[in-house]
Each structure stands twice: as structure tokens, then as C-alpha cells.
Amino acid sequence: MAGFTSRDVARLAGVSQSTVSYVMSGRRPISADTRKRVQAAIDQLTYQPNAGARALASQRTQVVGLVVPFGPAGDTTALLPFIETIASCARDNDYDVLLVTADEGTAALTRLAGRSLCDAIVLMNIAAADTRLPVAAASRIPVILIGIPDDPLGLPCVDLDYPEAARLSVAEAAAAGHDRVVVLGWSAEEVARGANYVGRFERAAVEAAAAAGLEHLAVSPVEVSREGARAAVAEALRIGGPRPALLVPASSAVPWVVQALTERGVVPGRDVTVVALCTDAAAMATVPPVTNVSTEPRDVSARAMQTLFRLLERDRETPPGGVELVAPRLTRRETTLTPP
Amino acid sequence: MAGFTSRDVARLAGVSQSTVSYVMSGRRPISADTRKRVQAAIDQLTYQPNAGARALASQRTQVVGLVVPFGPAGDTTALLPFIETIASCARDNDYDVLLVTADEGTAALTRLAGRSLCDAIVLMNIAAADTRLPVAAASRIPVILIGIPDDPLGLPCVDLDYPEAARLSVAEAAAAGHDRVVVLGWSAEEVARGANYVGRFERAAVEAAAAAGLEHLAVSPVEVSREGARAAVAEALRIGGPRPALLVPASSAVPWVVQALTERGVVPGRDVTVVALCTDAAAMATVPPVTNVSTEPRDVSARAMQTLFRLLERDRETPPGGVELVAPRLTRRETTLTPP
DNA sequence: TTGAAAGCGCTACCAA
DNA sequence: TTGGTAGCGCTTTCAA
Q1: What is the CATH number of the domain that holds B173?
Q2: Which intervals hold domain HTH lacI-type (chains A, B) (predicted)?
Q3: Is the dihedral of CA A158, A163, A169, A171 positive or negative?
Q4: A114 touching B (Cβ < 8 Å)
Q5: Does A135 touch chain B (CB under 8 A)?
Q6: Would you say residue B51 lies in a domain?
Q7: CA distances (Å), B79 to each of A80, A110, B86, B188, B249, in order?
Q8: Domain match, A251 and A184 both
Q9: For residues A162 and A204, is the Cβ–Cβ distance under 8 A?
Q10: Which element (helix H / strand E) includes A226?
């Protein structure tokens, strides 16, 4: 089928090979007649330019490298909307996505950049003190972080506004008339990895609770499993007083927490308020649907790609980094306590 | 940091550029001394070969294209283990993975092959009469299917052995002492798309039930949602008699079916048997853990990649297609009816 | 055992 | 408005 080169097209159209190139790139004015003949030849041969040759000559691969946290770590489930959105944004901008697993660590970065496999890199699941950052910052190509480290080293970052998520959660608890909020905290893995958002959420939750005159309590870490959720719920109910509001920031623990409550005969929305931090889809999948602050993986990804392409267009010498925060939204569903 | 070429390495090592190439590829005997000097130069410059140039010269990209069913269709959740395994197998064989979304349809295939973006393609989520197959079969590069169409057109396929999955499920029902099995069937989307495994499972279920002397009933399609599951469960209990065994082949519906049963006070493992077709992870995530026939996404992916690399090594002229089936396993958990 | 050199198929510069 | 041509950085043949 394929196998034709721009020389074949040129020959068939009766023009020079460089003219074919210019017709494709539009980087030079071409007479209507010539363009027509060349286009006809392209169509006839179903010509497609060789990506390797193009990359070699132009120093651009039209590929974005995506480093995803497969392997040991990772909210392996919440990952898909990120990947999907990134792939889709890439295609919209005429880029492809090269998928690399994070277990390669630093080597992935040096390989992607060193071999000119891509024009830019998206790095996910950033730890507070991520060892890949120095390498990323020294990279020849732009790197954008999804997640915020303690020190971004000048790299652009995009993430959910976790402090705002905490504030929204606490505000919902206050509005529902609670006087205590219990944060059913993060997984041990997230804490161990040093995910920065753990602290960002926590501090904001404490502050917001104080400002609203609520007592703030925490159960952490929470093991993400049935038993872990049962234990956490037991503890939360023990320390939370008669009518606690439960904030559940670890999205993968949400279904289990709701289960554990229900098992004990504690009905969310009647006996306690539950506010989860998870995607809207996940919130609607629990029984009953849980009031949630959305994590907006699609928005976060889209913003990251948008910023990345700005960096890529305004080739070089753009103001480097900066932190972009995506606003979460709270949606009240069936687990917010309502006055009878 | 980077930006060095093999010429730089050659100069530093005092050899010709082609010698550097041969040291890297090992395609020519090199004296120990020369190799040592070249390797030292490579290390010193942290030289990495340019992927585009290499692809252009060698006609090999060391990239596998992966077409994933994002977008409208898709068990969007069950996708991750496939992607992860494929990426991991690829790296083990010194390949990278280019991720393409299926919404490009046929264009994705022609682009990947036509532009020489990759050396082979993995196509997921195959419909019974998939319109991409003719294009795939005519492709210049190997294409492997995860899933089995009605006519593979000579393309290699790998998939779970769904007939065997049906047989295992029915055998479990029989062993638990039931005299009726009700299949809570597939989603309307899967049926509409014409997923081949729907029919493969169904036919085997009917046959196995007949052979075991069980009555076979079906509720299909099942809407994958809380309400859909409730309706399906109501219908299943209506037609299923006093002690039905429920087979749930649509993995995404499993948690909802279990929920719906529990809501009605019907306890899986005490009142009915539930056998799900899903990953072991998903089976253990329900309450109670559900007896399941595993879908083995990692095994299926690994087998596909193994076959793909065989095709890629034994360059050209290997016997083309063939269908590989991966055996499912049944794990009895807490939803198999046990005699009191 | 090694070097020189001819491409691979494209982009982009220099002329016309 | 177009053509000729010099690379891009590698692999691989042909000579030595």
C-alpha cells in the first residue's frame, strides 16, 4: 500500500521534491495550479511523510512523552481520564503520545529527551521531593508537571486546588450544621511517597475548620481496603461525637468508607455527612451517591496540555514555570445531612 | 546536556563514526581495546542515538502502536491493566508504546503505518465485523488483535477463552446444586457494537447448561447502572425460581448487581449463587467478595505482545494469523451457595 | 579489525 | 513562484 516518498509525488506531479514539501507545510506561497497537481499526486499515491525523516530534518517529532505512574504506586483507577484527555488534546494539536511507565524513573526522562523521542514531556504523580525533578529541570525539552512538588525548580505545574477543595468540604460540613469534621485521611502509600497535596489539603482543612468554628479531627492513614475502611470508620465514629461530618480525600477509599458506614447501620445523609474528594463519576457510582468535591482530571490534564503547547509554539524563551491551580466544584448529592 | 552525535563520540574515541555504530549495535566484531575507548567516550558524553535518524536509516522505529478504545465505547476501567502490561512488555523488549485513541478509527491505522510511526500495531476492542480489519490486514506492518472478530482476515488474535469461561461458570452453578442458571447479560453497548465474545459466551453457556441438565435463562441486555442492575435483578429473581444461580458476564455491572441483590435482602452465598466474569481485583472489591471467572487482562496482553515480538523478530514470512485463547480461572469466594 | 562513503526521506536555505 | 541542494544523524555496504 504505502512506501511512496515525496520524490514519487514530485515525479508524478512534475515538480521538484522541495515543492512537495512546501505544499505540505504551507511554508511558502504556491500557485493554485501547482498545489492542485501536487495534491492530486499525493491523493493518488496516498502519500504520507515519513515521521523519522521529518523528525531528523526538522528537529521536531510531533510527539509528547507521557510518564504515567504504573507499577507499584498509583491510584491506578483514577489514571484513565488523565491519559485519555492527554491523548485527545495531543491529537487535537497534531501530536502523538508516547507512553512510558514511571518505573523507569529518571531513565525515562533521559531516554525520551536524549534520543529525541519527543518534543515535550508530561510528568504525572509528582512527589513532594521528586528525584526526577533535577533531571527534568535540566532537560533539553519542556517538561510539565501534573502535581506540585515542594520546589518545582522552575518547571510549570498544574494541579487541583487542594486547599480550595478542603475549604469547600469544610464549608459543606458547616452548612449541614455539624460542629465536628473528621478527615478520613490518605493512604499510607500517598503519605509515604510524600504527595504534596496531602499537606496542602490538611493545612487548609485545619484552617477552614478553625475559621468556621468547627472542631477538626483526623484519622490517618487509611488503608484502602474493606478492613481498612472499617477500622477508619470505627475510629471516626468513636472520636467524632454524635453527628460528625466525614471528609474522605482519598478517592479510592470512598466506596469502602460508604460501605463500612452502611454496614454499621449508619446512614450517610441521615446520621452523618460524607464529603468525598473524587471524580463526579466515582461519586455517582456509590450507593447512595456521595456529595463530592470533584478532582477534575480532565480539566487538569487539558490545562497542562494547553500550557505545554504554548511552550512548544512560542518556541523557547517563554517565561518558564508557574503553578496553575484548577478549581474544584462541590456537588451536593445524597450524603449531606439535611434537617428532617 | 545532550546534543552529542555519534560523530562526537567517534572523534573523542579516535575512531570512525561507523565504528561507533558497530560498537552500539554489536553487528560487527570489535577489538576489545577499541570497544573500551568507544564506550568510554559514550559514557563521558552520555551519548544517546537519535531515534529519528536511526529509524530513517534502519527502517525500524522500535515503537509499537497501541490503539485503545477511549471515547464513546469501552469498559473504560478494565482498560488499565491492558495498557500497563503492554507498555511493560514493550519496554522489556526495548520498544516504546505510541498511544492512539480509537476514535480516529481507520485513520489511526493508516497514519501509524503510512508515516512509519511504529513497527507494529496492537488493536483492542475488536467488533465482530470490525471495519478496521480490512485496513489492518492490508497494512505494511504486523497488526495483532486483542479480541476475536468473526473473520480475522488472517490477522493474529488473542483473547480470553469465553466459551471456557461460560463452562466454568455453569459448572460452578451445577456444583452448588442449582437447577437454573440465569445469565445477567451484556450491556446494550457491547451488544450493539457486536462484540464477538457475547455470542461465544452465550452459546457455550447454553450448551453447558444443557449438558449439565440445568435450565438456562437470560436477562439481556443489562444497563450498566444502579437502576439497570435493579431491573435486571428483579427480572432474574422473577424468572429464576427459588434458588437461581446468577451469571454476570458484564464485569462493570457486577458491583451493581451485588448491590441490587443486597438491597432486596437477597444474600449472595446464602440465597443465590453469583458468578461474575471479571478480574480478580474487581471480584475482591465487592461486598461480599464474589466468586469469579477471571478475565486475565495481563495474561491476554502479555500473550499478544509475545506473539507480536515473534512476528517482529522472525522478520517477514512467518505463518501469519491464528487465534490464541487464554484460559480463565474460577475462584470460589463468598457468593457461591454452600449447603448449610 | 577498521574506515570511507552512500544513502534513508525529509526540511529549509540559496538561487533563479 | 519554483528548483537545486546541503544537510539532519544514523545504518550498512564496499574496500582496505
Answers
A1: 3.40.50.2300
A2: 4-58
A3: negative
A4: yes
A5: no
A6: no
A7: 8, 28, 11, 19, 16
A8: yes
A9: yes
A10: helix A226-239
Distance from CA of B31 to the nearest CA of A (A): 27
Interface of A with B in 243-262 (CB under 8 A): 255, 259
Is the domain of B230 the same as that of B260?
yes
Output the CA–CA distances (angstroms, integers) from residue A78 to A75, A221, A253, A281, A335, in the order listed: 6, 19, 12, 10, 22
Q: Give the whole-angstrom CA distance, residue A105 versus residue A236.
A: 37
Mean pLDDT of A184-209: 93
Provide, rounded to the nearest whole percent, the portion of chain B with pLDDT above 90: 87
Mean pLDDT along residues B62-86:
85
| Interfacial A residues in 22-51 facing B (CB < 8 Å) | 46, 48-51
Of A64-73, A105-114, A229-238, the poorest mean pLDDT is in A64-73
Asked if the model's pLDDT at residue A29 lies above 90, the reply is: yes
pTM > 0.85: yes
Q: What cell does B209 get?
A: 447448561
String of b and e for A190-220 (b: at least 16 CB within 10 Å)? bbebebbbbebbbebbbebbeebebebbbbb
Distance from CA of A108 to the nearest CA of B (A): 11
- Rounded CA-CA distance A81/B101 in Å is 12
Residue A315, CA distances (Å) to A123, A145, A312, B298 in order: 20, 19, 5, 41
Instruction: With beta carbons less than 8 A apart as the criterion, state whether B233 and B252 touch.
Output: no
Residues A171 and A285 grouped into a single domain: yes
Tell me how many degrees the CA angle A150-A154-A159 measures, rounded to the nearest 5. 55
Using CA atoms, how far residue B187 sits from B101, B221, B320, in Å, is 22, 5, 33
- Do strands A156-160 and A245-248 pair parallel, antiparallel, or not at all (unpaired)? unpaired
Provide the pLDDT for residue B317.
62
What is the number of other CB atoms lying within 10 angstroms of the CB of residue A338?
A: 11
Are B88 and A70 inside 8 Å of each other by CB?
yes
Say yes or no: B3 and B116 in one domain: no
The DSSP 8-state label assigned to residue A278 in this structure reads S
Q: Which nucleotides of C are covered by protein (CB under 7 A)?
A: 1-5, 7-13
B208 plus B279 within the same structural domain: yes
Least confident interval from A3-7, A38-42, B75-79, B267-271? B75-79
The domain total for chain A is 3
A327 secondary structure, DSSP code: P
Residue A77 distance to chain B (closest CA, Å): 7
Read off the C-alpha cell for B319: 505463518
H/E segment holding residue B98 = strand B96-101
Rounded Cα distance between A156 and A144, Å, is: 5
Say yes or no: B255 and B302 in one domain.
no
Range with the poorest average pLDDT among A91-105, B67-81, B127-141, B162-176:
B67-81
CB B74, CB B127: distance < 8 Å: no
Give the residue ranges with Cβ < 7 A from strand D.
A 14-19, 22, 28-31, 33-35, 53, 56-57; B 5-7, 17-18, 21-22, 24-25, 27-28, 47-50, 53-54, 56-58
Residue A1 has pLDDT above 80, yes or no: no
Return mean pLDDT, chain B: 94
Here the cell at position B197 is: 465474545
Residue at B339 is within a domain: no
What tens digit of pLDDT does each residue of A140-195 get? 999 999 999 999 999 999 999 999 999 999 999 999 999 999 999 999 988 988 88
